[in-house]
Design a protein that fits this description.
- By secondary structure, the protein is α+β, with helices and mostly antiparallel strands.
- The chain has one domain: Gcn5-related N-acetyltransferase (GNAT) (Aminopeptidase), CATH 3.40.630.30.
- Helices cover 35% and strands 28% of the residues.
- It contains six helices and seven strands; from the N terminus they run αβββααβαβαβαβ.
- Strands 1, 2, 3, 4, 5, 6 and 7 form a seven-stranded mixed sheet that branches.
- Helix 4 links the parallel strand 4 and strand 5.
- The longest helix has 20 residues.
- It starts with a helix and ends with a strand.
- GO terms for molecular function: acyltransferase activity, transferring groups other than amino-acyl groups.
Length: 178
């Protein structure tokens, strides 16, 4: 996950991609983060950019994120090509503070800020049931999905993901119509 986090918070690590991340502090303590990126859609990954991705979880998660975006491109029949897209790549809230509306507030603010900063769309990948419920709670609309069972036939490493559910869902908020 280190590489994904680095991409989200360090400008210039990747070609044509910018960090777009937010944190929530309470009593000078970081309690929630949305680590994201802003780029022209679709981001075409260069081989040199993929070299640092190491570790089973990072490779699985990165591949899933990339495939979810490709699925969104396919579903939009290419109409999103060139859109400024903010992608939420990592989202987490401190364990003991979950269930208090913090995640919903931070994700809502992230979507609103993306629009204010000129993005034309916001994409949220929800790999587990909790993140899918969060997306529904703030009225994000499901756009695409990947069923883990069929995906793991082609990519056996997916069977080793910790939080795997029946499917990974992608949620798209469009600020500019196709």
């Amino acid at each position: 996950m280190e590489y994904i986090v680095t991409n989200c918070i360090v400008h210039g690590v990747l070609d044509a991609i910018q960090p777009n991340s937010y944190g929530l502090l309470m009593k000078n303590e970081l309690i929630a983060v949305m680590l994201g990126t802003k780029e022209k859609f679709p981001k075409i990954w260069q081989p040199k950019e993929l070299q640092p991705i190491q570790g089973q979880v990072a490779v699985n998660y990165f591949s899933l994120m990339a495939d979810m975006q490709l699925g969104a491109m396919s579903k939009s029949q290419g109409r999103m090509k060139g859109y400024q897209l903010v992608t939420c790549r990592v989202f987490c809230v401190k364990n003991e503070l979950r269930g208090k509306g913090i995640a919903a507030a931070l994700l809502s603010a992230s979507v609103t800020n993306a629009q204010k900063e000129g993005a034309e769309a916001f994409f949220f990948t929800a790999p587990n049931k909790a993140s899918q419920q969060l997306a529904s709670k703030i009225n994000l609309k499901e756009y695409n999905y990947i069923k883990y069972e069929s995906y793991s036939r082609d990519f056996p490493m997916y069977k080793k993901l910790e939080d795997k559910e029946e499917m990974c869902k992608g949620y798209l908020a469009l600020f500019k119509p196709f």
